[in-house]
Design a protein that fits this description.
The complex is a heterodimer of chains A (225) and B (242).
Chain A (H helix, E strand, L loop, with lengths): L1 H18 L3 H19 L6 H22 L2 H5 L2 H7 L5 H29 L7 H29 L5 H24 L13 H26 L2
Chain B lengths: L2 H25 L13 H28 L2 H33 L8 H13 L2 H6 L4 H29 L16 H41 L20
Helix pairs in contact in B: 1-7, 2-3, 2-6, 2-7, 3-4, 3-6, 3-7, 4-6
Chain lengths: 225, 242
């Protein structure tokens, strides 16, 4: 299982390194979204709840782009058939894809969070605030990666891939949005970063756990052919 | 699935519903705070409970479908979600009317039950488009079941998240059926039973309809009629009989 996941993950990352199809698009889109927010809200800087919301929405929408592309190569180039012929556990694909998506999100955040800090956030990001942001976004990434992989795998077999991903994915990810925005709001407070609300970290963790187990249970059925 | 049993069930449903709403209208006391508007409670809350149960049952039937690969389970799941969605529209409309009457706004964000219900409704509203956009029948059934299972598990989790996100400025109207006065409570329970029976009746009716259509198609096929396996794009599961 570990070897299969490792091999699939290497394939995923090698593909992305050679084609640069997903991550640059996500990063670019997140920067554009920040600019859109600047003009739409007509604010030069944001703090607290508004800041948390702007960052959450930016990351979520950029993540949707990544989810849209996640299975395209496997679908078009016969990657699914190749994988199904290999005598490995099918869950390996779920794990590898979710890890790859989490990796993309991580790279996205390395670009988007500093950009957000420079362009829009009013209280400058201190070391403590960065650390707290990393904790919250780590939990959020896990949820987005798991649900994103599941939704991406469902949507790739439909005739309306780009429609189904946001339509199904956004409602499913709303608890993540609520949790991330609520947990980040005190971190971006104008008076300096406050303590992380433990309740929201627990809810995010619970969400990751439930959907992790659920995806593990149902993912096999999406590959059977 | 027999017409006679369906008729008994329909009559029973009508009787219980009439009894429930008569109790609600005449026997249950007028709410001291909200007056007559509070009566919508006997329609709104049972409908919401039955709709949510319908979604969860859709998920449970979907698990059975994934385990057995029997298309009848897929049909059961589809019909349950379908009817729950229709009830969901009613829930949102009656909820908005009640909110307008008691709080003065058509929509209130700090009423967690209303907000969670909207999110769940929007999620399930994608069920039919999802089915419709997968052409292969077998795959359509399998993917729809995966969706139904996922969404079924999402229902309680979403309630937890939305409820904790809300600062409860408005008092919860009713936390449970226990804090209702006796006459209100019995009226509410009869209405709930009536709504549940309505759901079951509609569910059975649609199941019977789908079965009959499948049988009719099979007979036509046997006669060598024009309705031989003509592929028809549809979101509804197809049964093969005979």
């Amino acid at each position: 299982m570990t070897r299969a996941v490792g091999a699939l993950l290497r394939k995923e990352l090698a593909l992305e390194r050679r084609t640069f199809q997903v991550v640059p698009a996500m990063a670019l889109f997140s920067l554009t979204t920040l600019i859109v927010f600047h003009f739409a809200l007509q604010q030069d800087d944001v703090e607290g709840r508004l800041a948390a919301g702007v960052l959450t929405v930016t990351l979520l929408f950029s993540a949707i782009l990544g989810i849209n592309r996640l299975f395209v190569a496997d679908h078009e180039e016969g990657g699914f058939d190749g994988f199904l012929l290999a005598p490995v556990d099918r869950t390996a694909m779920l794990v590898a894809k979710a890890l790859a998506l989490a990796g993309y999100l991580l790279v996205l955040e390395v670009v988007a969070v500093p950009a957000f800090g420079l362009m829009l956030l009013e209280p400058a990001l201190t070391g403590g605030a960065v650390l707290k942001t990393v904790v919250v976004l780590g939990l959020a990434d896990a949820g987005i990666a798991i649900v994103g992989t599941l939704v991406g795998a469902i949507a790739i077999q439909t005739r309306a891939l780009d429609l189904i991903v946001p339509l199904v994915g956004l409602p499913l990810l709303l608890p993540v949005v609520i949790g991330t925005a609520k947990a980040l709001a005190p971190v971006f407070a104008a008076s300096g970063a406050e303590a992380l609300p433990a309740k929201w970290l627990v809810i995010l963790g619970l969400y990751d756990l439930v959907f992790g187990l659920l995806s593990y249970a149902v993912f096999d059925y999406l590959l059977e052919d | 699935m027999h017409a006679a049993r369906l008729r008994t069930l329909s009559i029973l449903t009508v009787v219980v519903l009439i009894a429930g709403y008569s109790l609600a209208a005449f026997s249950a006391p007028m709410d001291a705070d909200q007056g007559f508007m509070q009566k919508i409670f006997y329609l709104h809350v049972p409908m919401a409970i039955v709709a949510l149960c319908g979604f969860v049952f859709g998920g449970i039937f979907a698990i059975a479908h994934l385990r057995t690969e029997d298309p009848t389970w897929d049909l059961r799941s589809y019909v349950a979600i379908h009817i729950a969605l229709i009830l969901g529209v009613g829930v949102l409309i009656t909820g908005a009317i009640w909110a307008k009457a008691s709080w003065g706004h058509w929509w209130v964000w700090d009423e967690p039950t209303l907000v969670s219900f909207l999110i769940i409704f929007l999620l399930y509203a994608t069920y039919t488009p999802l089915r419709f956009s997968i052409e292969d029948r077998e795959r359509q059934a399998r993917y729809a079941s995966v969706f139904a299972v996922t969404a079924g598990a999402f229902v309680p989790l979403n309630f937890v998240a939305v409820r904790s996100a809300t600062s409860l400025v408005h008092p919860r109207t009713f936390d449970s059926a226990d804090n209702l006065p006796g006459a209100m409570r019995s009226a509410f329970l009869v209405c709930l039973l009536g709504m549940a029976l309505l759901f079951v009746t509609l569910w059975k009716l649609e199941m019977t309809h789908k079965h009959t259509t499948a049988q009719l198609r099979a007979l036509k096929r046997k006669l060598g009629g024009e309705d031989g396996g003509r592929p028809r794009r549809s979101a509804a599961p197809e049964l093969r009989v005979g």
